[in-house]
Write a structure and sequence with these properties.
eight-stranded mixed β-sheet, binds magnesium ion, binds cytidine-5'-triphosphate, 226 residues, Spore Coat Polysaccharide Biosynthesis Protein SpsA, Chain A, alpha/beta
Length: 226
């Protein structure tokens, strides 16, 4: 666990696992697909529980309201999510106690993030002047910016680009303030950036791949037996 700057005591860390998507590209609720003998969501919750004081798991309302829903081992609280990922994060944030110092937000669709990665982002987010830290990996392909006609607008210098992942760690006060106006973005770092926050990137993990389509689950099953 990260130490609170200057206090010498362990910082309080809670994690929100967002698992309330509908899996349009996958073709179903991928977060509950079987992976290595348990549900995909169970992987992320177990890892988060090992490094957090509390874990809020955000699931679709059908599961949140189902008394027979099997709570992922390590979860502190289950809440219903929203229509978008950003809304689901806000549903989770509402269940995090007010005095928590750092909040990690992590996708249930990334089963293989390690405890070391959670610790690395929290440590980096706790550095002086930093508001948030996120994992990123160098981009292998050249990336083009295109317009809606498919015409190339520009080619950013690849050395300046990172493909970013979760878990993303935030000073809780900053994350709450950035989400207060109900913004929409594909990750929480973008919400904090738009709010003027100082976000740093730490080295991500190649196995921390997001399960997006069916091929990704085939890869993940292979990863389980390695
Ligand atoms: N998520 C969520 N609430 C939403 C949308 C997404 O909690 N309303 C979660 C997903 O469950 C997933 C993570 O955010 O763990 C990343 O989203 P993504 O990979 O896009 O999953 P889905 O939104 O379910 O998939 P798709 O975009 O293909 O519909
Ligand atoms: Mg989505």
């Amino acid at each position: 666990m990260a130490a609170s700057p200057g206090s010498g005591t362990p910082a309080s860390i809670w994690t929100i696992i967002v698992a309330a998507g509908s899996g349009q590209r996958f073709g179903g609720l991928k977060q509950f697909s079987e992976l290595g003998g348990r549900r995909m969501v169970d992987w992320a919750v177990e890892t988060a529980a090992g490094v957090s004081s509390g874990v809020v798991v955000v699931v679709p309302a059908d599961q949140a309201n189902d008394p027979s829903f099997s709570v992922p081992p390590g979860a502190t609280t289950i809440v219903a999510g929203g229509t978008t990922r950003s809304e689901s994060v806000r549903c989770g944030l509402a269940a995090v106690p007010g005095d928590v110092e750092f909040v990690c937000v992590h996708d249930a669709a990334r089963p293989f993030a390690t405890a070391a990665l959670f610790e690395a982002v929290v440590r980096a987010a706790g550095a002086s002047g930093v508001d948030a830290a996120i994992p990123g990996i160098a981009v292998a392909d050249t990336v083009k910016v295109v317009d809606n006609q498919g015409r190339v607008v520009s080619t950013p210098d690849r050395a300046t680009l990172r493909a970013v992942q979760t878990p993303q760690a935030f000073r809780a006060t900053v994350l709450r303030a950035a989400h207060a106006s109900a913004p929409e973005a594909t990750d929480d770092a973008a919400v904090v950036e738009a709010h003027g926050g100082y976000v740093v990137v730490v080295e991500g993990e190649t196995d921390n791949r997001k399960i997006t389509g069916p091929d990704d689950l085939v890869w993940a099953e292979g990863r389980c037996v390695r």
